């Protein structure tokens, strides 16, 4: 099953997880990490790292964030490059999370990424989708074997 780390501004992450658990009961491999004003990126990184390791059983982890480019998204993006089967989604909201809940157990992280973005577009996107629009910078000398 895919782990979920919901990370948003103020108390929105905790609020989303509480709403899901109120309706569906306790959710295994789900954690909420709130990003409060004044919290350092270093502390957020430590909190997200703990949540990542608590939710990952080997199938992958989905970071679900509220705003693309904001601190939770940026920190999760940096972490995702170090861990296999780790995706970062932005623009999430309760109805979308509710729709996607059943797919945690049946989809790979890549399939989940494509499915959630297709259901929530244009407001919902992923790190992978953003990188396809803006490919990474490559030095010319890296393209040629000398």
Structural class: alpha/beta
Distance between the termini: 45 Å
Share of residues in helices:
40-55%
Described by its quaternary structure, the protein is: single chain
* Number of separate helices: 7
The averaged pLDDT comes out at 92
What is the strand arrangement across the widest sheet? 2-1-3-4-5
- Strand proportion, as a percent range, falls in 15-25%
User: What is the chain-wise order of helices and strands?
Assistant: EHEHEHEHHEHH
Instruction: Count all strands and give the number.
Output: 5
Q: Radius of gyration, Cα only, in angstroms? A: 16 Å
Shape: globular
- How would you characterize the largest beta sheet? 5 strands, mixed
Flag low-confidence runs.
none
Key traits:
7 helices, 146 residues, five-stranded mixed β-sheet, 5 strands, alpha/beta
Short characterization:
With 146 residues, the chain is an alpha/beta fold.
Explain this structure to me?
Keywords: Cytoplasm, Kinase, Phosphotransferase system, Sugar transport, Transferase, Transport. It is found in: Cytoplasm. This protein is an alpha/beta fold and 146 residues long. Helix content is 47%, strand content 17%. It is built from 7 helices and 5 strands; from the N terminus they run E-H-E-H-E-H-E-H-H-E-H-H. The protein has helices at residues 12-24, 41-55, 71-80, 94-100, 109-120, 127-133, 140-143, and strands at residues 3-9, 30-35, 61-65, 86-90, 125-126. Strands 2-1-3-4-5 form a 5-stranded mixed sheet, with helices on both faces. The longest helix is centred in the first third of the chain and has 15 residues, at 41-55. It is globular, with a radius of gyration of 16 Å. The mean pLDDT is 92.
